[in-house]
Amino acid sequence: MNRKIVFPKVMCTQHPDSASRYISTQEEPEEAIEAAQVFGCDEYMPDYEGKATPYHQNVQIVSKFIEETDLIPGKDIFITPRAPSAAQENRFRQLMVMMSIAEANYNALEYSDVQAINEFVHPMTDSVKEIIEAQQHMVDVSELAKKEFGFSMEVPRIIPLIEDAPALLHAKELAENTLLAWKGHFGTDPEKFRVFLGKSDSALSFGHVASTLSCKYAINGICELNSELDTQTGIIFGAGTLPFRGHLDLKNAENFLREYRGVGTITLQSALRYSHKKGDAESLVSLAKTKLPEKPEFFSVEEKEEIINLIGIFGSSYSRTLRQLASVINRVADLLPQQRDRLMHKGTGGYSRSAPDISGMVKFCRTDIGKELEASMPAEDLHLPRAIKFTGALYSIGLPPEFIGTGRALEEAREKLGEAACENLLTKYFPSLAGDLNFASGYLDLNVASRFLSRECLKEVRKDLDILHEVFDLETSPEPSYRILVEMMQPDLLQAGSRGNCMDEEVSQLVCSTLTKMGKIRKALG
Question: What is the mean pLDDT of the chain?
C-alpha cells in the first residue's frame, strides 16, 4: 500500500466575487504572497480560465516566493494553475499555460532542487478523452523543455474540474476510467490523483438543492475509490460564501465541514478574504487545517437512488422557472462591477455555456421523474452569465436563487417519493438547507422582485415561499439597509431593462455603485 499522502488544505483562488476590491492581474503575484503569509493558505491557483492572466504569471509568482520569502514553492506553498479548456477556449492558450509551467519550473530549479509546479487544473471536464489529451500535451511540453533547455521535470499531473450536475453524478466513474486510461496510455499508475468539484456552475444550471446533492454524491463516489484503488485520491471542493455557491464562511464553517465530509482541500475565494471581517479568513484557514479531511459519509445503494431522484425533482422545478428569468438576470448582471481582468467575449458571460447533457442523469432517475427533468430543460442555450454575476443579479433584485423551485420541489418530492425521502433530505442528505434558506431570507424582498417577474413566474415563486414558510421557520425580513438600497435601485434597473442598457453614464455609475454597496452588505458580489 502506498504511503499516506497529505494534500494541501486551503487553495487561495482568483475568483472575482469580492464586492469591496478590484484586483488587477498585476497585483495577483503579490496576492499569492499574501495568501501564504497573511492568510496561511498552503496552495494558490493562478487562473487562466476566461481571464486575461498574463502568460508569465506562473513565473512571476514562483520567482516572487523564491526572492522575497523563505517559502519554497512546491514544498511549503503549492502553485496549481487553472489552464483554459481546449474545447471552450482553444488549444493554443492551453499550451501557452503549459509552457509557462515549464518555464516556472526551470527558473525554480536554479534556486532549489524542488519542482515548483506539480499539478494543473483542467476546467469543465466532461470526458476521459479530454483529460488524457491535456495530460499528453503536458508530457509533450515537458519533452520540448528538456530538448530545448536541457532540464528534466516530473510531468505535472492534471486535476480534472467537474462542474455540472450530470458530470458530478459520474465523478467516480470518470476518475476510475481516467486512472485506467492513464495506465494504458502512459504505462504507469499515478501515486496520487486529485479531483476538483465545483458547486457554483451546477447550482446555476440545476438549482441549490440539486447542486448540493450532486456534489455530495460525487464526494461519496471519489471517497469510495480510495478503498478500491492503489492511487490515493484527494478532493478539492470549490465553494463561495453565499449559500448558492457553497456557503463557505467562518460563521457557517462547522456546518460546511460536516455537510461536505470527505473533502480534503477547500477554496478560499476573494469575497472571504476582502469583503468579510478582518481575521475571518485566517480563522477559517486555521480551522480547515485542523479538521480537514473529515471522515466521509457513505450512502447505500438505496440512498443513492433516492438522492438521484431528488436531484431530478429539484432540478426540473428550478429549471422551469429559470427559463423565465434569463433575460432579467442578464440585464442586471451586465450592471455589476467586473472585479478581475477577464478576456473579452461576446454576450454577457465568459464562456457561452451550453445546456448540459442530462441523458446520463435521466437514465438514473425513475422514469416519470426523468421525463419531467427532460421536459424542464430549455429548448436552446440561455447564454447566462457566469455563476458569480448570476448569483449577484438575483440577490440584487430581492430574489436569492436558493428559493427558486425549492418549495414546489419539496412538495413534489413528498408526493412522488414519500415523507421518508423528504425526512432523509432534511436530516441526512442536506441538513444545512434550513440554515442556507434562513441566511438567504435576509436578502429576500418579493415586493421588489415582483416588479421584475412575469405573472406566471411570480406565481411560482410565491408558491415556493409559501411552502418553505410551512416547512421552515424562516425569518423573511430583509436587513433594513439592504431593503433601502433594493427599493432605491429598482426603478433604475427597470429603466435599464426597458432601454436595453443604453442609460445615461451618470445613472449607470450610480446603479453600479449601489449594486456594489448591496454586495458589500451581503459580503460577496455573488
Answer: 91
Q: Is the pLDDT of residue 114 over 90?
A: yes
Average pLDDT over residues 127-152: 94
Q: Which structural domain range is residue 180 located in?
A: 10-299
Whether residue 273 sits in one domain with residue 378: no
Query: Are both 429 and 295 inside the same structural domain?
Result: no
Do residues 218 and 202 share a domain?
Answer: yes
Nearest to 203 by CA among 23, 7, 327, 353: 353
Point out which residues pair with 193 in neighbouring strands: 233
Q: Count Cβ neighbours within 10 Å for each residue of 298-329 and write b for 16 or more, e otherwise.
A: ebeeebbebbbbbbbbbbbbbbbbbeebbebb
| CB contact at 8 A, 49 and 349 | no
Domain tally, the chain: 2
Pairing label, strands 192-198, 157-162: parallel
pLDDT tier at 256 (50, 70, 90 boundaries)? very high
pLDDT of residue 347: 40
Strand order in the sheet with 78-79: 78-79, 43-44, 10-12, 265-268, 232-238, 192-198, 157-162, 119-122
Query: Cell digits for 426?
Result: 432534511
Whether 274 and 314 share a structural domain: no
5 occurs within a structural domain: no
- How far from 86 is each of 83, 168, 175, 412, CA to CA, in Å? 9, 20, 20, 40
Question: Residue 476: pLDDT above 60?
Answer: yes
pLDDT at 157: 97
DSSP secondary structure letter of residue 442: T
What is the enclosing helix (H) or strand (E) of 200?
Answer: helix 200-206
Whole-angstrom Cα distance, residue 232 to residue 168?
Answer: 19
Q: Model pTM greater than 0.85? A: yes
Cα–Cα distance between 270 and 12 in angstroms, integer? 8
Average pLDDT over residues 382-403: 94
Nearest to 355 by CA among 374, 380, 376: 380
What are the two backbone dihedrals, phi and then psi, of residue 147, each rounded to the nearest 5 degrees? -70, -45
Tell whether 59 and 201 lie within a shared domain.
yes
pLDDT over 70 for what percent of the chain? 94
